[in-house]
Amino acid sequence: MPQQVDFLVVGSGIAGLTFANKAAKYGTVLVLTKKRKADSNTNYAQGGIAAVFGRDDKPEYHIEDTVKAGEGLCHKRAVRTMVHDGPGLVNELHAMGCRFSVDANGRFDLGQEGGHSRRRIVHAKDHTGQEIERVLLEETKKTDVTISENEIALDLVIRDGECLGVYYLDADTRRIGLVHANATILATGGIGQIYQHTTNPAIATGDGIAMAYRIGAKVANMEFVQFHPTAVFNIKIDGRSFLISEAIRGEGGVLKTKDGVPFMDNYDSAGNLAPRDVVARACLNEMMRTDSRYVLLDVSHLPADFIKNRFPTIYETCLSWGIDITREPIPVVPAAHYLCGGILVNEWAESSIPRLYALGECGCTGVHGANRLASNSLLEALVFAARAADKMKKVTGAKFGKPVKIKQTAKTGPNLLFQIKEIMDRYVGLIRTDEGLQIAKANVDRFRRLFDNGIHIINAESRNTVVVAQLVIDSALERKESRGLHYMADYPTKRQAYSRDTIKQSQGGT
Ligand SMILES: Cc1cc2nc3c(=O)[nH]c(=O)nc-3n(C[C@H](O)[C@H](O)[C@H](O)COP(=O)(O)OP(=O)(O)OC[C@H]3O[C@@H](n4cnc5c(N)ncnc54)[C@H](O)[C@@H]3O)c2cc1C
To answer: Which among 144, 139, 138 has a CA at the least distance from the CA of 5?
Structure first.
């Protein structure tokens, strides 16, 4: 594995791979990824990728829907960029061999999801992310990109205020190494694993955000954690709850109480296609009202052949657990799903630290504001990764000097994941209060003190989840209002004074 490159990418999901494939034209590229290449949130995306292709659709409509969902916090220029660049890049994926679903005329078979005023979800049945990941990984074989698996990035190298690369742990040899780079690109995905109920796989421990925060990069809007309303109740695979895509409601699926009574029309005029935060809180409310640990999602009234053909993964997976969704409803619960905030970046993925960039879910371009519109996340990752690669061709000339000796603690860090999850689920979920957040803060601050300033090669992820949980709690405490995904029972309305991003920055060394 090279020890010095032009572009060092951490993460092999849609953001990291899109960037790597494009940047390979401009210099040497190394991708470090902490498990196998395809272990990413990207691989599990079901619903699709939003882009304007419909005959009745226009970029203005997509922009309008995105901004409406974002409740006053979207960075509008970034939204416009995403919407305008999206279709070209989706076509590019298609041309690379991505098997998106098409109709009899060869046009994309566009799906519908909550908050979108038009059909604009390009999808590959219900395994869109897996198909995108496959094609992007195939594409790397046509380039000189090196992908190194089982390498866990631990901390960023900072010298004279610039980011010069990454310290990593080789999970096979248990050795720590250092890679120097002209540009370090974090594409490490989300933070779902800080919650007990999450749709995110085990890799989603917020490593990139914690690493960037530790060296003083600005981190924004961490309070805006999206909960997906419909994850299968009480069944987990590899630490994640199985998601039932919103597209299933787009095709007519209906949410019901455990007694079979439809309830979404009581909450929103858009019914089952209301924005995710509204649906998730409605589900939680109905669970409390009916004293149930789940609600039901029913598609059994739709033709069985249609379900099996349009949602093969969901159908087969549920069937393997004894739930035949063509005949019976699925018990579902809300689960942590997506982070709208992250490392604050501009429209070229530049963070507040020179030579450090962030892409995809670990970055915050501001396109989602206070709430992400379904299927805009794959789009955001794709668009800004492509732009960043084009802009970064001129990033050269870092002065690396001698490799800095790593500061490694003799102790190993404690494994706190379980405790963190319990606290986050209980106090920092869909409905928050000042009192609950203060309890969460006191606990997580205590955990934080268990880690000193050295690099912990054991439980590095645990160390990161503590930092990320603290960022979510502190940001939530700061926003004394309810807006988008952040609902505070003590302050149930939106307040003009908070029409701004919540920004957190450490003094380094945390
Ligand atoms: C179940 C599910 C369904 C979804 N459905 C949709 C959908 O239909 N449409 C949509 O737009 N979005 C969807 N999303 C969200 C979307 O999939 C993600 O936001 C997007 O894939 C994130 O891409 P990414 O490249 O930023 O990160 P990821 O795809 O998560 O990739 C992160 C990469 O970083 C690596 N990594 C992490 N930490 C380290 C470290 N310390 N060292 C080295 N490597 C590291 C990981 O191993 C992984 O390779 C869904 C998410 C989930 C979980």
So the answer is: 144
